[in-house]
């Protein structure tokens, strides 16, 4: 190991380049070299030291020993993120002040192990669905008057088997059911509609309609099916909703001016099939993000920036896929980052 003054070119996080003079020569260990660089440049946190290998066209490799470092070589300091484990705990709407998630962090710093546990509340953006279709659909609570009538009807049903014949409450029941269904999906399947009606009849058996089918559910299934269509029309007029707008008649070609023809809807239980753009973003602003991504993918060690921009443009990309059905080559050209190793295995909600 050289004992005379040594000069090194130090690259920090691809954004800074400095010269480091080691008056006593190169330290004998990688940890000592890292500590010297951190003290000199006043760096906080955990870093990995890499060196530029001229045998491989100046590619960077993880530094395992300082024996390979020579005068005027280039090293690189890459900040490492501490490992984070998130443990989610469901909360009820009536207890919003209770912890929604527990954040446990454990990380290594200078060979010592430090653990900490903090409680944070993690909220899903309101424009995104956060839950898939439930195994057991929970019937929502209806208005006070309707609940009173249903309770009285169930008591009469248990007493003498009589059914509740009060069409005036149907509208309120269907509205609440449609609202609850829309929380999970805008386009429920026939089986999902059936599951909702089964839960309704199990909770309120007085609502059976024996005249429509043996199970007494057929009438409710048909009414709920048409109610969902009306509910989608109402929501389309009230709030921006891409998964509804894409199926509006004005967006369909002349040969497909039929509400049921070529209806684009989730087919594989996607929770966010066509989510709206993030708050404050438009198609134009997200197109600029896409264009910036074309340059970001060409940079080395730029995974974090790419992942952030890919997550931000998810809604824009989904609209392009669902509405345009682009060819694979065309899509790869527009979104090359999607085919990177880091993105291929990235789960999309």
TrEMBL record:
Residues 94-117, 243-288 are annotated as: Disordered. It comes from the Eukaryota. This is PB1 domain-containing protein. It comes from Astyanax mexicanus (Blind cave fish).
